[in-house]
Amino acid sequence: KQEVTQIPAALSVPEGENLVLNCSFTDSAIYNLQWFRQDPGKGLTSLLLIQSSQREQTSGRLNASLDKSSGRSTLYIAASQPGDSATYLCAVIAAGNKLTFGGGTRVLVKP
Amino acid sequence: GAGVSQSPSNKVTEKGKDVELRCDPISGHTALYWYRQSLGQGLEFLIYFQGNSAPDKSGLPSDRFSAERTGGSVSTLTIQRTQQEDSAVYLCASSLGTTGNTIYFGEGSWLTVV
Question: Is the peptide bond before A111 cis (omega within 30 degrees of 0)?
Answer without folding.
Answer: no
